[in-house]
Amino acid sequence: MRWRYAVTLLVFIGFMAACSLRAAAARPVSESQVVYELAPWTGVAYGATFAAQGVKDLYLLAGTPSAVDVARTRVYYWPITREYQMDWQTERAVAPGKLQILRGGRVIKEVTRTDYILRYPNGPDTLPVELVTGRKAGRVYQSYRKAVQDYLTAVSRHTEAQKAWDDEMARILKRVNESGLPADPKTLSEPPRQPGPPRLFVTAPASGFILNLPAGDYEVHLVDDRGDDVPGTHKKLHLLAPWRTGVGYEIMPEATWTYPFKSDDVDRVIYASGARTFYVQAFQSAQYNVYDYLHLLSQQKPLQGAGTRSGTAWVHGQALKEGVFLELLQNGQVRKRIEYRPYRVIQTPGPALGYNIVEWDPKSQPGTGPTFSAFKVQAVEGDGYSMQLVNADGKVIRGSERHLQSVEPAANGVIYGLAALPMLIGLVIAFRRFSLRPRGAARP
Amino acid sequence: MNVPDRFYVAAIVAGRELRSTLYGLSLYLTLSLVLVTISYLGIGGAFFQIGQSGMAVLSNPVTGPFFLTSVLMAIYLGSGAALSFARERERGTAEVLFYGPVDSISYVLGKYLHSMLAFMVVAVLTSLYYLFVSALTGLQAGMNLLWFGILAIFLASAVIALGEFFACFVRRGMMAVVAYLAVAAIFILFSLVHGWMISIPGEQLSDTMIYLRIFLDRLDMVMQWVSPVAYFNRGQVAVAHGNAIAFGWTVAELFVYAVTLLACATLVLRRRGVRP
Q1: Which of A59, A181, B156, B250 could form a disulfide with B235 if both were Cys (CB 3.0 to 4.6 A apart)?
Q2: Which of A97-101, A140-144, B141-145 has the lowest mean pLDDT?
Q3: Confidence label for A24 from pLDDT (cuts 50, 70 and 90)
Q4: In this complex, do B210 and A306 lie within 8 Å of one another by their Cβ atoms?
Q5: Given CB atoms, is A265 within the 8 Å cutoff of chain B?
Q6: What interface predicted TM-score (ipTM) does this complex get?
Q7: A342 in a domain, yes or no?
């Protein structure tokens, strides 16, 4: 019987070992690789991605600066999100050297590392954003640090002033309670004003190669201080240019403002039944190849955009709102020039659903903010209407023209009746042939 | 046989068949059925979208249905050409013709001219219908309808030539129609499925679907040359962007496509003969 127990025990141990191996297999295997870390300009913001050693192609937008760096780090594939991941906490060593850009086998540019920062004058993740390089980057970062330090100092002072004011108020309140006499308003001081944080945001300085190249296909590799090629750094570099550029609109009907329509191309006509009010937001837009653009965004995802080489997509860039007006035209004549304004959506009281969209006014609606900002278009019924964006000089912004067309849902009977007309023609012809047939003639 | 004689014979063959087509009921009946179906889907669909929030942004609410109607009618006429081509060989009628002053070139050309002239009649009726619909509803047809009309004529030319090309290889009438309709359906379905697959965000696709999308994308490289629908898609983009050079190029490609298929049909017919 003992040998049976022994076999059972061995089977159990084997099973547990197999389970532990399966568990170990779920932990991805990482390897040390030389990778390209990229901060590409995407037309909207600066992205963050990287290209592992197996990735042969890098994508950047043409005519705008993007940052690239080369480093050795540990890389593993994460199958759940189908992407490569960097384990830079375990290993990250910048690969020293210069970046050589080649075209047709010839070196056309050699780029050295430089410090850079991203400067957001209107706050983090808000356009515009500027890539600042070299010594200026250091100065901008120092001034940002100073602004933050000044803000923190001001907050500290405000905390103290607030405490002093609270103590003062407490003393006055105590005196009023004891005496029963109200305090003289002239003796009451204003509460200290809370300091606002700096709008400016600047990222911590990083170092990298700043590439700003015209559209086309290049090759890129890192060379060390002796001029030798650093193994694993040779890649193809694609500088993308948009197929077309124009103005993209997001159109929010008053009745369904949370479900905007997109009109990215001049052939997208805006149809409305009857007089309608809608709100329009305009953006600079560019049309790119889907595959190339998706790879620009996420080069760490090898399957990103797979099977979309033949597709194109419009990408909305910076909002067009300052220094531009929306013109409403009828038969080519400007009927109205509309300004970009803030609006607030106010829910109607009571259990029934409903809302009103009103122009936001900080004086009449204190303590609130706008829900959205847009050009408000009140389209009337009729033909020949169109809209376009113009700059402050009245010059039309190319690609911003759109037709507005009011439609009348015709009775289905009329449309289908018209569709049956060819059949009626055929019946008339067949009847005429039948009636013209000689009488008494035999049927074929 | 010299060139004017060949054209004369082709015109007689085309005239005889055109008379038969125009005095019959099936062309008109099919056109009405196609118009009702496409109007229900296209025009009705546009008004459904507008009705939901009182507004909609649409690119081709009239020219799209117009073009779809034209394509379906071209396929109908192409299948008719394939059927008549194969059936005349099957029954020996073609052989009798070839004892007269008819050769393979004039025969193929005559069949092609017949279908094209019938398509012109269809194109005029279809254009009038969609212009009326545009005037009644306010949905814009505009100058695009003219450009789409020109594109439709060249596309129909290619589709009809494809029908004749298939009929040369098949001696049974029904087989020719089935093979032709199957190929036409593959071209249309491929365009629809490929367009749909591209529009799905990558995160929502399983590994199998990603592989299928890669396969379809590679197949699209072939379809760009083989499928008349791909030529149409290029022409449509050219019309939308007002790109006259791209439009002219697409029209020229469709012309070459049709001429090549007709030349191939003639060679095959000459080599295989017209005997049943």
Answers
A1: B250
A2: B141-145
A3: very low
A4: yes
A5: yes
A6: 0.81
A7: yes
Same domain, A344 and A282: yes
Tell me, yes or no, if A289 comes closer than 8 A to chain B by beta carbon.
no
**Residue A33 contacts residue A52 (beta carbons within 8 Å):** yes
Residues with Cβ within 8 Å of residue B117, at least 6 apart in sequence = B14, B18
CB contact under 8 A, A307 and B129: no
Do A212 and A274 share a domain, yes or no?
no
User: What is the DSSP annotation of A341-360?
Assistant: EEEEEEEPSSSS--EEEEE-
Residues A235 and A356 reside in one and the same domain: no
Query: How far is C-alpha A116 from the chain's CA centre?
Result: 22
CATH number at residue A125: 2.70.50
**A307, pLDDT greater than 90:** no
d(CA A335, CA A332): 9
Using the Cβ of B230 and the Cβ atoms of chain A, whether some distance falls under 8 Å is answered with: no
Inform me whether the C-beta atom of residue A419 falls under 8 Å from chain B C-beta atoms: yes
- pLDDT number for residue A23: 47
Q: What pLDDT score does B263 carry?
A: 93
pLDDT at B232 over 70: yes
Q: What residues of B are in contact with residue A310 (Cβ under 8 Å)?
A: 194, 198, 217, 220
Q: Chain B neighbours among A 67-126 (CB < 8 Å)?
A: none
H-state helical runs in B92-200: 93-99, 104-137, 144-169, 173-199
Tally of structural domains, chain A: 2
**How many CB contacts within 8 angstroms connect chain A with chain B?**
160
Residue A338 maps to a domain: yes
The residue range of the domain holding A265 is: 244-288+310-406
Q: Which residue in chain B is spatially nearest to A294 when comparing CA positions?
A: B202
Contact between B139 and A271 using a beta-carbon 8 Å cutoff: yes
Alpha carbons B177 and A363: distance in angstroms, whole number: 75
Same domain, A235 and A315: no
Residue-wise pLDDT for A53-101, tens only, equals 888 999 999 999 999 999 999 999 888 888 898 888 888 888 999 999 9
Task: Tell me whether A218 touches chain B (CB under 8 Å).
Answer: no
Structural domain includes residue A100: yes
* Residue from the list B27, B46, B57 with its beta carbon closest to the beta carbon of A270: B57
pLDDT tens figures, A156-171: 999 999 999 999 899 8
pLDDT for position A116: 95
